[in-house]
Prior knowledge:
5-stranded mixed beta sheet
Amino acid sequence: MIRKFCVGLVALMMSLTVWAAEADKFQDGVQYETLPFAVKTADPARVEVTEMFGYLCPHCNSFEPLVAGWHKRQNADVQFVRVPVVFGRSWEPFARAYYTAELMDVVDKSHQQMFDAIHLNKQRLSKTEDMVEFYGKLGVDREKFGKLMNSFAVNTKLNQGESKARSYEITGVPTMVVNGKYRVTAASAGGHRQMLEVVDYLVEKERKSM
Length: 210
């Protein structure tokens, strides 16, 4: 009887030790940062995870296969959002192209292709005409794409994206933001794979608070 009690007590202590270790695995201000002001998300019933990225960024290119695989593994209560960041004039056409692709529902077939075109095939894409040609080769309606790129709808998305980047205090990409509250970078997490481990931790943290 005493032996069983001791075995049970040891098991309980080991469980508590593991729980404590997991609880302290990632720390605010170390592997992630809590934003000074939480940003409202689209659906309060789901945990929103936002990837701030840029097609011209080589680190985003390396990160893309990892985050794409992560996205496929998520449950329905996680809402994944991509926001193209504009750090300068040369970044804007790519942000416009992404938002246009999003409005035309062709991101799934164009997103990785765009990264490959820039970083693998070394294509020079800088003007609306270049983007129209690129997406046209993927089977996208050229005329519609060209009109949408400079439309009010895309301008609105561009402004919303810039507002989010300011609110999230984005200084580099890729950066992940969990539920408008927590910011994770490769520098803070220790690498690209580690970024997603920290994101998983924060997603679970938000699930428990709902």
